[in-house]
Amino acid sequence: QRVVLMDPSEDPDDILRANRSREKTFVFDVVFDHRATQEEVYVSTTKSLIEGVISGYNATIFAYGPTGTGKTYTMLGTDCEPGIYIRTLEDLFKALEATAEEMDYTVSMSYLEIYNEVIRDLLNPSSGFLDLREDSRGSIQIAGITEASTTNAQEIMQLLTKGNKQRTQEPTAANKTSSRSHAVLQVTVTQKSRRQAIGKEMRIGKLFMVDLAGSERAAQTQNRGKRMKEGAHINRSLLALGNCINALSEKGGSRAQFVNFRDSKLTRLLKDSLGGNSRTVMIAHISPASTSFEESRMTLIYAYRAKNIKTQV
Fold it and tell me: Where does the record place a coiled coil (predicted)?
């Protein structure tokens, strides 16, 4: 459960800094090393959330970390090693089929990206930029998004792979197919009982799976011009997310914290999943390379703060 981050620049003979090590130890719920398989990561992080979604709770999974540490691999995976998206949906459909005798269910999903603070539909990219709106019950809706209804995991895999090709990817110095946008897969499960007496009751569970854009510094990717501007937007939304996490993790402290979800589209969309009625998992990715020591340190601090959020589900 422990991550020990060693400082690569430490010089053992440096007397002035002998007592000032930047070595840090972090404790998390689970830590995976380079030998972990997709299956292990999935079972330890996400598998337990599926039951909740079927019972009508919300769940959210984040992949966070600098560029090139494997966020998209964890979430989407490859054909022979599928990632969390596919494994979760396969298990979700199996679990739903088990309840099919008593329940009528529908599953709809949408896949979108947030790039430069505008929302694009990845399943129908020609629809242009979409708006976030709040309905009378206070839940956030995206006007005009495509919702695909299917209960076949294979179809979904094709939809996701197609959608992922539509993502804004640009080469940076850190990674030649760096995803420059946050991708959000939203799955909504609606269930109605088949018995007449309680037929009015509906259970709605939402599952968000978020593949965030890389959180590295501009110097690391040697960004200039358009890439730089794009990086600023990415950092802005990740900063807004960090601010929300900070405010939420300090809640219940001495002073009542105001949580500013309106700072970016990302946090508005995930408002419920951060502080509200949701079980949330953050999978933080770090690189073992000594050149990305600072990035790894920031990522671990960020994830460690997120660990302190207590949500009331």
Answer: none
User: Residues 130-169: pLDDT tens digits?
Assistant: 888 887 877 778 888 888 887 777 788 788 888 878 777 6
Residue extents of the structural domains in the chain = 2-307
Q: Is 161 annotated as a binding residue?
A: no
3-50 pLDDT tens trace: 888 877 766 666 666 666 667 888 899 999 888 899 999 999 888 889
Q: Using CA atoms, how far apart are residues 197 and 92, in angstroms rounded to an integer?
A: 27
Architecture of domain 2-307: 3-Layer(aba) Sandwich (3.40)
- Binding site annotation covers 72? yes
Residue 72 contacts residue 62 (beta carbons within 8 Å):
no
Going by DSSP bridges, is the β-strand pair 169-170/178-179 parallel, antiparallel, or unpaired? antiparallel
Say whether pTM exceeds 0.85.
no
Tell me: is residue 71 an annotated ligand-binding position. yes
